Amino acid sequence: MSTTPGFGDRLARAVAARESQVVLGLDPDPARIGEGAAGASEFCTRVIMAAAPACVAVKPQLAWFERLGSAGWDALERVATLAAELGLLVIADAKRGDVAVTSGAYADALLRAPFDAVTVNPLLGTDAVTPFVTAARATGRGLFVLVRTSNPGAGDLQDLRLADGSPWYESVARLVAAWGAAGVGSSGMSDVGAVVGATAPHHLAVLRELMPHQPFLIPGVGAQGGRPEDLGAAFAGTRAAAVVAASRSILYAADPRVAAEALRAQLWDVSG
Fold first, then answer.
1. pLDDT interval class at 2 (50, 70, 90)
2. 95 in active site
3. Of residues 29, 36, 49, 95, which has the active-site annotation?
4. Which end of the chain has fewer CB atoms at under 10 Å, N or C?
C-alpha cells in the first residue's frame, strides 16, 4: 500500500497553505499570442510567473499544446514543470477515456510528474475509469471526472432525463462518489473529484449533496459568464471542497497577477 498522501489531502493542504482556490487555465491561443511552441511556452511562463502567488494550481489544456506536435509537448512539459517548481499543483486537462486497456495507457501517459491530476471523460463507464483510479491512487495523484460541464451544449446529453426522472448528470455524480469512496483522506476530500461548471450554478447544491467528498473543479468563471458569488454551494463551508479554473480572464488581463488576486479574494470570501 502506498504511503504517499492521497490527492484529496494534498489538495486540501495546498489550498490552506496558499490561501487560494484559483486554478490558472493555460490555453495559449495562437490568435492571441501568435503561432509556435516557443511563443506558447514564453507566454505561459510569463503568466505563471506573474499569477502564481495567487493560485493553487495550473490547468494546461492539452489540445493547445498537442496541436503543435512534439514541440508542443516539449512546451507543455516545460511550463508544467515550472508550475510544479513554484509549488503549484498541475492538472492536465485532457478529458481522456476509452476502453480499459487504452485508458490504462492514457493513465500511464498523464498520471506522472509533473502532473498531479487529470480530467477524465466517464462516458464509457466504470471499466474505462478504473485504470485511471488505480494509477492515480498508487502515486498520490487525482482525477476530475466530467459530471456537469460549463459549455453551452452541456445540457444536450448531461441534462437528459432517465427512466426514474432524474437527469443523467446525477447518475454520473453517484458513480463518481462510488469511484472515490476508497480514496477519501483525513481532510474529507477524495482523490476522485468532479468537473462541475460555474455556468449552471443551480446544480451545485444537489451535486454537492450527491458527492460530499469530491473536490470540484469548476470551470466557466469569467469569460464564459460564471460568477464567483454564485458558487457557495460547491464549498459547503469547506475551503478545499472546490477549486475554480479561470483562463482568459487572467491570461489576457492587463495584469494577470491583479486579476488572479481579485478572483482569489472573491473565492476565499465565498467559501468561508
1. low
2. yes
3. 95
4. N
